[in-house]
Amino acid sequence: MMRGKGYFFKWYVALFLVFLYAPAILLPVFAFNDSSIVSFPLKGFTTKWFEVLQSTEALHVAVRNSLMIAVTTAIFSTLFGVLAARASTRFAFPARRSIMGFIMLPMVLPEIIIGVSLLVVIIQLGFELSLFTIILGHILICTPFCIAILSSAFMNLDRSLEEASIDLGQTRWNTFWMVIFPLVMPGIVASLLIAFTISLDEFIIAFFLAGTEPTLPVYIWGQLRFPQKLPSLMALGTLLLVLSISLLLLADYFRRRGLKKTGIENSGGFL
Amino acid sequence: MTQPIIQLSGVDKFYGDFQALSQIDLDIRTGEFFSLLGPSGCGKTTLLRSIAGFETPSAGSLHIDGKSMDGVPANKRPTNMVFQSYAIFPHMSVAENVAYGLKARRLPKAEIQERVSEAISMVGLQGFDSRASHALSGGQRQRVALARALVLKPRVLLLDEPLSALDKKMREQMQSELRRLQRAVGITFVLVTHDQEEALTMSDRIAVMFDGKIAQVATPQMLYGKPSSRRVGNFIGMMNFLEAELLGTSGQTVEVDVQSLGRLTLPLSQAPGGVDGCQSVGIRPEMLTILAEGQTAEREIEAVVSEVFYYGDMTYYDVTLLQKDAPVTVTMRNTAGRKVLAAGDTARVGWSPVSLLLLR
Amino acid sequence: MVLISPTLVFTLLMLAVPLIMVLALSFWTQSYLTLDRSFSLENYKTAWTEPMYQYLMARSLKISIFVTALTVLLAYPVAYFISFHVTPKRKAMWIFLITIPFWTSYLMRIFLWKVILGYNGVVNGSLMGLGLIEQPLSFILYNQNAVVLTLAHSWVPFAILPIFVALERVDRSLIEAAEDLGDNRLRRFLRVTLPLSMPGVIAATIIVFIPTIGDYVTPRLVGGPNGLMISNIIELQFKKANNAPLGAALAVSAMAIVTCVTLVFVWMNRKFMRGPK
Predict the structure, then answer these.
(1) C or N terminus of chain A, fewer CB within 10 Å?
(2) How far is CA B350 from the centre of its chain?
(3) Do the chains contact at C125 and A41, CB–CB below 8 Å?
């Protein structure tokens, strides 16, 4: 009986999940561990590392920078995403495939290449490195993800809905706001959340383009060298993990709601 | 006669090199139930969408209610459409869907409410007003689509394959309901369908289309009884064809030599598409009879049964007419006491010259 | 066309222009702070002949290939399990489960592998606790093995997804047909399921291979001196060594190699997609 179908797979997948989740599980374990060394055996429960975070001024600056960058990035990459997704799913234009392929390129390009090339341009043109330059880089890499999410939202849209609206006497402009926008709204929210999450966690581009003002990952990178800072970084990582997962669940919730609204069977998750 | 509600003349439509419509001349009369019938890709949907304003003809003119529709966008035309997918707005309730067009017209709230509930009850959806539209069945969605279009009191209602998404039983029910609705509101209906039975049962007149051209416009009886070409005859119902050779015309008659049946003189009225170029004679399977023992007919011919298809109420026989080996199908009603033949049996097939059609 | 323009213009300005400038820069030379803008192949000569760069490039390529192979091998059974052994209703949940760890802070995730693999780390601690070893294992951190393992962990969700999608597309009746025609379970898998899921495997390979060769953080954190990769040296040229042209030449060379390898995979993918049909 036990040697039935899938016996091997169950064990394999169980081990795989342990491997996959090992870092994510250790993060909160060490965040609440009452020891200044991040290693086993555990020494007892404490929340003091979270209190340390509260009193670290440099961290707060980095968080503010990152939030500002992430919000701006989310808005602009979603805006670019909406335009591109609408154009590519609804209209035919010359060289559509090549243009879309080019716009999606940052998704597969190694980030270091993007970081280096943006750095070169900014230095050659004599601009100062600033939060603004990081935003530009982040919009570049987030836009393809937004397009991927929004394209499926626009594609699920039955074209005859638009025609029905026009046929019933509505103008094109009103049709967009009364029919198309409400139906792709969940996709837009999901896109905003994904872009926000990616930007918040992005390190390489920020590392190359950050001037004097660090983002959160750049700050963390700087702190990883100091062993005494590690436990509080674990606490920080735990908070970030909780935040990311909440945002993701929220994004998925909106995606599902969107599917339900348009009456389409749910299939698969993100990406 | 009153003026036609829709007048098309010389309408062409090209997609690149592909010609979807070619030289369409068509008048649709006010208040009639008109069907555009043809196989998929024949241009019927393109024609309907041109009337609605979603396609712009490459050439020709289109008048609705005597007014040229040149440059008039879809939202300004006195037509409304029931889409194949119904295109019910999924984020709105039944009542919101039906009210959509009235709101676009900025009518007073009270009037909107009154007309919406009137339309909803007209299609038999009382009590469904606030139902979310994604929770509706196929038949109910169809009714919402109808109510949403009819509530605007259009001059013409355009229906694009409205029954194709329904199952057989629902389809038959909606056929009679559409007919009833059309009589009740008196609006001109233009229906696109590939289902000949649907077109025959519902329409006042039908236009049969092939390859972007209109092959014949006629009432259902004329279309079935007097198809203008072999292709139309074959598309509407079943038809047997026998090779025929024209021997000559004299006055109101034509003389032909038909495979297996021999030399015949037929009146010109039995060549509905004209005599010139006719190479075959068509006859409907139900116009042929397998004669029982002792039964006689105006004309008879010996045949051998090659296949038997038993349908319960009917039996379809594939038989080979002797002498010239012409294969034909004969349909017989299974009446009490009538023996069902088996493959290999010989049979006498009865026929009559009046049921023959000389076709191109 | 009007709709797409803003996005296209932005991508042109922020991607195409910078890439062209990097290309241009790689043909210039720099001594201290002055940039010589005359055309020169000097940087490429250095990049392709200097043993250190040759060695780093080869090592990066080797590590990437190992990571890709390991990742795809790890991912395939998981994708197969989700596609064939999980009820349809639960599939979305499983995919979600697979992607969650990816959303842990990127830096933290890699750093924690250092904690897991370290001298006093989780692995050594548990193995010693179980009495399996007496001395902590030192070959598991600060070398290429650690880099391969950590990168595989980072990218495995991205390998599972395309393989899963490809497996989902396999018509189940084809497998039943193979069974009906007398193939046993293994032969069914080898002759029907595996070939039909190949496009997913190749997509996974491309998705993992391209970013891993350019990874910067993993080699820095868990690689030790012998685990450094090409991107670490590129960063060094741009920042500390202050020889941006050489860095650009190295970056362009790395890109060229990645592109060649990717094109081979894309070509293979095309071949599989077309199939014998």
Answers:
(1) N
(2) 30
(3) yes
